[in-house]
Design a protein that fits this description.
single chain, 699 residues, mainly alpha, Lysozyme, two-stranded antiparallel ribbon, 2 strands, 66% helix
């Protein structure tokens, strides 16, 4: 009865909101989604047909796709509806169903038999790397084979099978299919260049010896003029203006396969980089960065010195500096672990004109190494010479001035509200430098600083939340989000937050708030750092002597506030405890006077209150064992026995740094730079920095 009243009220709301206010029929689309989920297919079909009369082009396009999906599963469409679909199915909201429409028969006619339709479908299916083939694509392929079987070659059929297998991540199956195309019609890979990506991945993720390397390098050689009949055939198949992209991909994937096999790969990536540099400016940035990233990674596997050599060679060609943070973080760990302070200074010089985030990182490390007395006299002089020193109000030594100067650089270069560098690495250095200097953490804009524009796409997406269809929104948001203004993304993020889809809400905020030049406002940050389960988290944090800001940050990092989250290794719930740890902690909690959360010897770790209480109790236990909150956070991720072993080993590092064994360990913030596991190292920085944001916003 309650559901009936709710649905009745919903229909009344729909009528008044749309029929009276806008005279638009788009709301039927959202009702159709709900009807279809309930199994009321006839009502859903009728609703989608009504929504074709909407004035919103995105609603009409999405309705067309839903109607075709139902038709592919047996629903009958009238000639009038089919004609409307053919007229209105366009744009991103329709997905692959745009290809299917040519195969839909209007009663009395036969569709989908021309060569141009075949070429359009093959281009849409085979040139779609990184896009999974959805129901629309599979229906299109089925109809293509049913109606145009005689016109499809064995190579084309095999290429379609390979593309579908890659979409399912079935690389052995894909390679079996692609080999048929390689044998019969290799030019297909050149006519549809995205297939080279699929073929490259298939070779990379299967055991094929050198087959992929030899094939790709031979094909690239064949593209050289004067190479014979095969080369001429391959060149002619390449779409106009795509030859350099094809040659880049052939060498790039040969290099990736070589890397996967443990063979020398740097020279191949350097060859691929030359082709990447020749691509059009609007498309080459990602390819350039990918080549340099692999070059640096392979060099770092050999030695830090080799990595710095290649960094010096290629840093000026970086396009997206955040792309390299993981490589630079691993290089930094090796340098700090071995107390190579001269190299840290050289790294600062190298990056300061290219990346604010990396400049902040090295400036902070330099300031702390100088402050702790780790620098030699020559390194002190070098540090003083490479930047203008600031004056300080009170008389101080050169070391005092150096420390203040580099901490100020770290602070200035890590302003995540202006430079777009939102990664945990950058935010962490803003937090620690702001605290050291006694400066504000962030400066926020008064409001979202973008112009609001009414668009069909935004109104279409917003309708999911206005008309109780939010569970279907995510697929369409991902299709259209790149076309929306920041203020529109903010409004959708707020709607997702209200609907309890916190992870997706935070992801949307990151899309616009991380762009260079955008200054986040308080509403942005409150969406980015939300407080679901506020009462439970604050209650159990306070009961266990944990700062609520740290506990919110931990849960955000662990599960993005998804109560049903399960990691690939089995950690579960909001605080992502492993089953054995959760059971052991719950038993200890009960022994110490807490509630007994076991029912029939089973623990419901997906219950938010149970999970939060156990997680808080466990973090409190780690705080007691490790004596420092950052060490406790590292232990939560990496295991307290392992972190204790690492931290104890830092005594020898400290002895090397201080020049004598004083029994002291490294300061925790410097030790953090040396943590062996990158996941644990970055986890500690991320949670510590995020806690500072929560503290600033709410506490």
């Amino acid at each position: 009865m309650i559901k009936l009243y709710r649905r009745t009220g919903f229909c009344i709301l729909l009528f008044f909101c749309f029929s009276c206010a806008t005279q638009d029929l788009g709301y039927y689309f959202y009702d159709g989604l709900n009807k279809k989920q309930e199994g009321a297919n006839e009502e859903a079909l009728a609703a989608y047909e009504r929504s074709l009369e909407s004035s919103n082009s995105s609603i009409k396009s999405a309705s067309c796709a839903e109607l075709l999906d139902m038709h592919s599963n047996g629903a009958e469409l009238t000639a009038q509806t089919i004609n409307k679909i053919k007229k209105n199915i366009h744009g991103k909201a329709a997905g692959f169903w745009q290809l299917a429409v040519d195969f839909i028969d209007t009663p009395g006619t036969t569709a989908g038999t021309s060569a141009s339709i075949k070429e359009k479908v093959l281009d849409g299916i085979l040139n779609s790397a990184n896009k999974p083939l959805d129901a629309g694509a599979l229906y299109t392929v089925r109809e293509l084979r049913r109606k145009m079987a005689d016109s499809l070659t064995s190579g084309e059929n095999a290429a379609i099978n390979g593309r579908a297998a890659v979409s399912r991540l079935s690389y052995n199956e894909a390679l079996t299919a692609f080999r048929i195309t390689i044998e019969s019609s290799p030019e297909i890979f050149f006519k549809y260049p995205d297939l080279i990506v699929d073929l490259g991945r298939s070779f990379q993720y299967t055991s094929t010896e050198r087959e992929g390397i030899d094939l790709f390098l031979d094909w690239e050689k064949q593209l050289g003029y004067g190479s014979g009949e095969l080369g001429e055939t391959l060149r002619k198949a390449i779409p106009y203006g795509k030859e350099n992209l094809v040659r880049y991909r052939l060498i790039f994937y040969a290099a990736r396969i070589a890397r996967q096999r443990g063979e020398a790969d740097i020279e191949l990536f350097e060859q691929a980089l030359l082709w990447a540099l020749s691509l059009p400016n609007e498309t080459k940035g990602e390819q350039i960065d990918a080549c340099i990233w692999y070059i640096l990674r392979s060099a770092l596997n050999d030695s830090p010195d080799k990595a710095m050599q290649y960094l010096q060679k290629y840093i000026a060609q970086w396009k997206n500096y955040s792309y390299f943070f993981d490589i630079m973080d691993n290089l930094t760990r090796q340098l700090v672990t071995n107390m190579r302070w001269t190299d840290i200074l050289n790294m600062f010089v190298m990056v300061q004109n290219y990346s604010d985030g990396l400049t902040a990182k090295y400036a902070w490390i330099i300031s702390r190494a100088a402050e702790e007395g780790f620098f030699s006299p020559q390194e002190i002089i070098q540090a003083a010479e490479i930047v203008p020193l600031i004056s300080i109000s009170q008389a101080g030594s050169l070391i005092d001035i150096l420390v203040k100067t580099y901490k100020q650089i770290a602070y200035d270069k890590s302003d995540v509200t202006t430079d777009g560098s939102t990664g945990a690495n950058v935010l962490y250095y803003r937090v620690v430098s702001a605290q050291a200097l006694g400066k504000p953490l962030l400066s926020m804009a008064a409001s979202n600083n973008s112009q609001e524009t009414e668009t069909d796409k935004f109104n279409f997406l917003n309708g999911f939340f206005e008309f109780e269809a939010e569970q279907f929104a995510l697929r369409y948001i991902r299709m259209l989000e790149s076309d929306l203004a920041p203020i529109q993304l903010q409004q959708l993020a707020a709607a997702l937050n209200k609907a309890g889809q916190y992870q997706q809400s935070m992801r949307l905020v990151s899309l616009y708030a991380s762009k260079r030049g955008y200054r986040a406002c308080r509403q942005d940050l409150e969406l980015w750092y939300p407080r679901p389960y506020k009462d439970l988290i604050e209650r159990y944090a306070n009961e266990n002597g944990i700062e609520p800001a740290i506990f919110f940050a931990l849960i955000r990092a662990e599960s993005n506030f998804e109560a049903k989250a399960v990691s690939r290794v089995g950690a579960a719930g909001l605080t992502q405890l492993m089953p054995a740890t959760a059971e052991e902690t719950a038993a200890r909690l009960h022994r110490q006077g807490g509630p007994d959360y076991f029912i029939d010897e089973k623990l419901d770790v997906f219950d938010p209150e149970i999970n939060i209480h156990i997680g808080a109790f466990y973090l409190s236990f780690l705080n007691e064992r490790m004596t420092d909150p950052i060490l406790a956070l590292l232990s939560y991720n990496g295991g307290h026995n392992r972190v204790r072993r690492w931290y104890d080993a830092s005594e020898q590092m400290a002895a090397n740094a201080y020049g004598q064994n004083t029994g002291r360990k490294l300061p925790v913030d410097i030790f953090l730079e040396t943590v062996e596991f990158s996941e644990t190292r970055n986890y500690g920085k991320s949670v510590w920095a995020t806690a500072a944001i929560y503290r600033m916003l709410y506490y």
